[in-house]
Amino acid sequence: MATQLPKSVVPAKAGTHCSAARVLGRWIPAFAGMTVLLVLLLAALFSKAEAAERASDRQILHVLDRLAFGPTAADVRHIKAIGIDRYIAEQLEPESIPEPSGLTERLSGLETLKLDPVQLFAEYGPLRATDGATPTPEDQKARRQRSRLILEQAQAARVWRALYSPRQLQEVVVDFWYNHFNVFAGKGLDRLWIGAYEEAIRRHVLGKFRDLLGATAHHPAMLVYLDNVQNAAPGSKGLNGREAGINENYARELIELHTLGADGGYTQDDVVALSRILTGWSLVRPNALPEKGSGFRFYPARHDNGGKHFLGHDIAGNGEAEGEAALDLLAKSPATARHLAAKLAQYFVADQPPSALVDRLAARFIETDGDIKSVLQALFASREFRESSAAKYKSPYRFVLSAARAAGVTGDNPKPLLGAMARLGQPLYRCATPDGYRDSEAAWLSPDASLLRVNFATALAGGKLPIAEGAEPVGAASLLATLGSGLSGKTRAAVAKAPAELQAALMLGSPDFMRR
Fold it and tell me: In the chain, at which end, N or C, are there fewer CB atoms within 10 A of the end residue's CB?
């Protein structure tokens, strides 16, 4: 039986994936970007010899392109002062790194991030009849428009943390795990819970995978997105009072995407068994909202109490505890260890990660009972990681953020950067398919996308994006001091020969800067 996704969701394995790069607009007249692109292409004709750079300088940029959203001048100085190994150890303990007051002040103004899912529903969800008075269509429309604030503030918080937080690895792995457990902001009431969902993920990104898995499995954003709110024993009544039945959507993606992987050795019978196990996992009814909380509710009357056989194990009818037992089995499976090891290695090392590295990371996952921090320690200490400089092509999200960080952007308006990500094909929280945005060169590299990136680099370098009032052009000398060891001799030769007003754009739009 095939997974039936809602009409608003494109099946993950069919059709055009949300990672496909598209031409969606321009920031500046195309001829300006074309001028920069032409200079970069002509640079390939130069025969200037590559200047020798200290390996340590190149390695610093490599580490900042993987554990952070690209280098800043301050981060480069910091690593030179304490060393790469100490920086990695520091990043693996984010709670030990103080957040700057400017960032905490920005975040403190985002009121919706302080609310839990129940409070968000009560404050921003659909209006309900009170005292016999039914809300008008105009009232409901105004409520929906007001709820847009939640997504806007979640996006602002994500961008500000990525740009300004010294806890860079934490934000990088938040991006990784959100994408792994992707939820689409455009699906139903999920617009209310995107920020709260990411906060639930952030609490566990360097902890035990089982805790992270449980946090997503109980969250209303996931239960709505993959339709487990509709999953009930045949013949029982749904939240709307109508007769319900089995819905396999969440169970299938929980196995195939979140844990075992597509080649994890499960069968359709396992999907059906897990669907039955998860019957009754739903949300509190709107007319019975508590004052606060997650919004998760288990309904015994909607649960299939029969025995199940799942992944070779017999699970007796035991209500909500059946679901917890199933999550335990999935989290401890060697197939899950290998699936997650391969995804982490692909994200941090190469699109086709070395199998020996994946084997070692999977073994570390099993040895530590799924401790994510321990797996990352092993990954960052590996020869494969240290020798993989520039092996990855930046996604639009990482390209935009790394350009802004390298340029030293400071400002309170994240919309130009969010717009750039959307134009490049990766709007934040807007991937409709449950497998999330792809993180590979094949997904993002194309001539049209390259021109759009150069256009963005030119606008950013020229101070043309309204990120802050009075934005000025980026200084080429300071940018070269930060990025120089990561630029090829050909790129530096092109920069040196270019007019001063194009030099920063050439660096940010160069093929070297597109890679990490």
Answer: N
Both tokens of residue 437?
A: 């945005």
Record the tokens describing residue 303, joined without a space.
């649960």
Q: Which residues contact 424 (CB under 8 A, 6 or more apart)?
A: 21, 24, 396, 399, 400, 444, 449, 452, 453, 456
- Phi, psi for 499 (deg, rounded to 5): -55, 150
The Cα-based distances of 464 to 249, 457, 495 in angstroms read 45, 10, 20
- Residue type (1 letter), 117: P
Strand, helix or coil at 515?
strand
- Residues 305 and 279: their CA atoms lie apart, in Å, by 9
Is the pLDDT score of 23 beyond 70?
no
Which residues partner with 310 through β-bridges?
313
* Structure confidence at residue 284 as a pLDDT band (50, 70, 90): very high
Write out 55-87 in H/E/C secondary structure. HHHHHHHHHHHHCCCCCCHHHHHHHHHHCHHHH
Can you tell me the distance from the alpha carbon of 89 to that of 382, in angstroms, rounded to the nearest whole number? 14
Helical pair 489-497 and 30-43, crossing angle rounded to 10 deg: 130
Averaged pLDDT, 388-417 = 96
What pTM was estimated for this model as a whole? 0.91
Closest alpha carbon to 480 in 511, 506, 451, 462: 506
H or E segment and range at residue 298: strand 296-298
Residue 378: pLDDT band (50, 70, 90) is: very high
